[in-house]
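Retro notes, item 3 of 5
We never archived the inputs for the AHM complex last cycle. Fixing that now. Sequence and ligand:
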Amino acid sequence: MSAMIDTPADAPARSNEIVTLQAHILQQQTRYPEASGQFSWILSALAISAKMIASHVRRARLDDVLGTVGNQNVQGEQQQKLDVIANDILLRTLGGREGVAIVASEENEEPVILRADDAAERKYCVLFDPLDGSSNLDVCGSVGTIFSILRKDRRSPQPQSSLLQPGAEQVAAGYVLYGSSTVFVLTIGLGVDMFVLDPAYGAFMRVAQGVRIPKSNKCYSVNEGNRLSFPEGYQKYLSWAQERGYSSRYAGAMVADVHRILLQGGVFMYPPTRKAPKGKLRLMYEANPMAMIVEQAGGKALSAPGERILEVRPTDIHQRVPVIIGSSEEVEHVAAHL
Ligand code: AHM
Ligand code: MG
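Structure as it came back at the time:
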């Protein structure tokens, strides 16, 4: 395995090369001779968290962690809900990494400030949705973890406001899909790379570099049960697409839906509804990281016609935003109807 780590950063990728996520991170780090390594350690914390969460996801029914907090597992032990377990894993792995100043999770009302004493040395903020689409677990469906890394804004007096940066400022973003295999998709702003967990070795193996999303594919992904409460433009788009023979695919977990679109093309939407007038998805934990991945792969991510998700100025850490994300041509077809 050491031969992989010795690979020069700019060497052309050979098709038979075996590169783990860990080796990939070290390769990327060599591009930045001034790097302290803090950023690489954060990515490695996310990788170990992903393996731990994947293992819990596989055992969810056996451990009886699907319902509400306070369930008992098959051994009669009290268990936490799986999203609480996933949240704890991420907080504990990231909490041990020197470079992390602030952690913000969809599960916690307030961001967690790590070691405020010498916070100046800690350069990064990590935001995550620990287990997106967790209701899918009850039926053995796919779920995911989404993460976003920002540089700490030293000018901000309050930790909370240090986090309120537009998605365009993200230094890295990614997701982990716990599906029929466990897939780790990462961008550090140099394209999108994909890794699959090899259960035999316990390592994420690189399976694709520079992933490009197809420009078009006649497929949309939206909760069509809400159709009558969407703004009129979305309803018109759906009629337009159906007249042209589009397919509909909806997993009910954004990570699974966006992953399919990243590989096969199409458009994922979560429009405003009467119940959720600003849409359901969270800007900082879901929309921004997915938008960075999709744009880095050559796709588009809008909150409204002409408005990039990555340019939305956040005012609240938990704010919601409408999402239209996917193949560039398919996103434009939706926008043209709004
Ligand atoms: P969650 O973070 O509470 O799991 O909610 C987010 C999920 C997304 O993964 C998915 O796209 C969406 O909610 C599905 O919502 P709906 O059931 O309204 O279609
Ligand atoms: Mg979520």
